[in-house]
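Render this sequence as a predicted structure.
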Amino acid sequence: MGRYTGPSCRLCRRSGEKLFLKGDKCFTPRCAFEKRRNPPGDVSRRRRRPTDYAVHLREKQKAKYIYGVMEGQFRRYMTDAFNTPGVTGMNLLRTLESRLDNVVFQLGFSDSRKQGRQIVLHGHFRVNGTKTDIPSYQVKPGDVVSWKESIKGTDFYAGRIEGVPKRPVPAWLSLDSGEMVGTVVSLPADEDLQAIVDSRLIVEFYSR
């Protein structure tokens, strides 16, 4: 199955909560989730109370929706998390947060992770001076993320950097808003990881 290309707000309705997949629009009254919160599909045949399996599956799907990761790649991340010393759930979230498309989003260079993935794919960024167009690239402490020089004279670049930083930059990243360069200070600490995802449920899902 290919990557999901349908309405982003449908994924929020399916999860039963806002996943903030569309950037600033999610914080406005125009957010579709605010207008229609019920899950998609036929409600007449839906269980009143979800099973334990459904609860665990929903949490795993939620993480996939937020970070835009497909099932095969998510399974590989999960395998690596199990094989890495430490708390498995935190290892998984740390890997997801360290993706280049997420770093571009966290630095404020994109309005959403989906948009961050797109502009990374278009080759607009360099990591340590080298063009990197792989959204899943894992950044490391000391890596420097910068815009490609040829992009800086375009209207697209001017629109992207307007108002940067658009949101607070996490403590594990550093942003030079004058040069529009981000630096990875460290790997995300446990307190920096997404609180919206219960990694314990995901680990239990894959431990069955």
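Summary. The chain is about 40% helix and 10% strand. The beta strands are 125-127, 130-131, 144-147, 173-176, 181-184.
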